[in-house]
Automatic annotation (TrEMBL):
Disordered, as annotated region: 1-26
Provenance organism: Micromonospora thermarum
Keywords of the record: Membrane, Transmembrane, Transmembrane helix
Pfam families, A to Z: DUF4307
Listed name of the protein: DUF4307 domain-containing protein
Residue ranges of the TM segments: 32-53
Amino acid sequence: MSETHATIRSGAPVFPPGRYGRRREPGRRRPVLAGLLALALAAVLGLVTVRLYQQYGDPEYDATVITYTGITDTQVLVDFRVTVPPGGSAVCVLRARDRAGAEVAREQVTVTARPGERHVTTQHRLATSGRAFIGEVLRCRPPT
């Protein structure tokens, strides 16, 4: 025999008493705690963003490889152009890789612009431990 309760809306499921355990009461919401956690997360993400931008994203120090030539078993000549603040200098990391992608040379080069100039075009010879396939500029940053 089934029970019909007068207080239950039509269409709502009726569970036999004791069969499925006690129904939970709706939990109390804590909007202040959720807001504080969201604010703390936003602050941490903001700090990480600023730190990564300072480390990798300075647009004043931009390098472009023009060409790499003079490839032998012991060297590669890398021509590159660096954008720096007017009259400033930069420390650039150059590397050469072989055909398989292994690094065969890495060197730091300091370039300095003439007073009032923002661009420095230079050529640097990288001494390699094997035959290079490509010469590249990994990054440029302010001198420390």
